[in-house]
Amino acid sequence: TAEHAGNEIHILGYFLDQHNQRLLTELARFQSVRQNRIREMVARLNELAIPLQAEEVFALANCQSPGRPHVARALVQAGHCASHDEAFERFLKKNRPAWVPKAKMSALDAVELIHQAGGLAVMAHPGLNRTDEIIPDLVAAGLDGIECFHTKHSTSASERYKHKLLVTGGSDCHGKSKGKPLIGTIKLPYTHVEKMHAARQKRLAAN
């Protein structure tokens, strides 16, 4: 999660060197921040007389970087909400009682970090964030691609975001939405994957 010019942006990193020390340091820092965010969300839920414990969320998440979907699942599992969507609507969406802002890094720093770790930097779902106007700034900073295909992008939007950059696609699946899983719902030609591999080899050769 990053930001630029006051806009929240999600930057995806492909082909990362998972042993890159700088990347690991940044990940550890953000994992700690995200865990503290969960504790704050749970504290706000407790103030609403919902007896959820942070440890329940951590156990359910079973990862070092828990997020709101895990809190939603914990609320459903404990019987406080009937569904993931209800949990977000009542408590976890922006400006709802248990919402806590995310910590963000500079989008330009995120692109540079991904490149330093040998990866390709891709801007996720610009249509969802409505951040078209900042794409040129990210391209100037070395952005490699755009997630043109997304569950909430129309066909025209998918075409509009092809800025002569690499094209990716994803379902952005965080579990079920409206009772149905999103995973596997976005498909695109394998030629885009081949272009990503070629771009990665070019970057490695340049380094």
Largest sheet composition: 4 strands, mixed
Backbone shape: globular
Low-confidence stretches: none
What percentage of amino acids are in beta strands?
5-15%
Tally of extended strands? Answer: 9
Q: How many angstroms separate the termini?
A: 26 Å
Strand arrangement within the widest β-sheet reads 3-5-6-7
Order of helical and strand elements: EEEHHHHEHEHHEHEEEH
Taking Cα atoms only, what radius of gyration do you get, to the nearest Å? 18 Å
Mean pLDDT, rounded to whole units? 88
Q: Counting H and I runs of at least 4 residues, what is the number of helices?
A: 9
Structural class: alpha/beta
The percentage helix is 40-55%
Question: Which keywords apply here?
Answer:
single chain, 207 residues, alpha/beta, globular
At a glance:
Helices cover 46% and strands 15% of the residues.
Which SSEs are present, and which pair or pack?
Layout: E1 2-4, E2 7-9, E3 11-14, H1 21-47, H2 54-61, H3 68-77, H4 84-92, E4 105-106, H5 107-116, E5 120-123, H6 126-129, H7 135-140, E6 145-150, H8 155-160, E7 166-170, E8 176-177, E9 180-181, H9 191-206
Parallel strand pairs: 1-4, 5-6, 6-7
Antiparallel strand pairs: 1-2, 3-5, 8-9
Helix pairs in contact: 2-3, 3-4
Structure commentary:
Strands 3-5-6-7 form a 4-stranded mixed beta sheet. Strands 2-1-4 form a 3-stranded mixed beta sheet. With 207 residues, the protein is of the alpha/beta class. It is globular. The two termini are 26 Å apart.
